Predict the structure.
Amino acid sequence: MRLSAVLIDPACLGSLGWDYLTRICQTLPGLGVVVCTERSTVAQRVRGLRLGADDWITKPCHPEEVLARLEAVARRRRRTRAPVEAGPIVVGGLELRPDQFQAFVSGTSVELTRREFEVLQLLADAEGRVLQREDIYQRVWGYAMAHGDRSVDVFVRKLRSKLERASPRWSYNHTHFGIGYRFQAEPADALEHESGVGELGAPNGHRADDHDGSVDIHRLEGAASL
């Protein structure tokens, strides 16, 4: 029997809970991980998700909801197995390795979290097509996006920062204001020389997603949990 997802309560392991969560996410990157615990803070939930957990449930919770979330994680894992066998993807200065859930530039890891890699791989697989935020959320998180949820924006923003730092000669993630995102390797110097106009019409060289709505994304990073 092949295990698709596991439910973990770090509190049951005492002081070793966080170490166990870290080891299982690093050792078994293809395994879905759902954390179910009580009395958690926003900082703890964010930490767990950044370590590689796919979802976080706070007790008390209904057994049917727990099962539904595990099933959603398992469905996403099944969708990612085929690309894992397809081999690395090279675009611009970036190499995507689905077998390691990681991206590399000149052999050096970009140090993406598993969720960040899943978002990146989904965009890369679209081969230049624009993906709507709702579609990205549904296919990566496994269920419908709630109204006002900015998780996709937060993760794309983090991805852009890491990719531009690791591969400064290329620009990969492009914002389509009010719609979603497109992945395509374009020389960064070509974008910099555009006459005072930022990406997709954003003035003064700012990216469109930096002004998409009045909500400060930095304040919402803790909300990028599900």
Q: What stands out?
A: The two ends are 27 Å apart (CA to CA). Residues 195-226 have pLDDT under 50 and may be disordered. The chain has two domains: 1-84, 86-226. The CA atoms of residues 175 and 181 lie 5 Å apart.
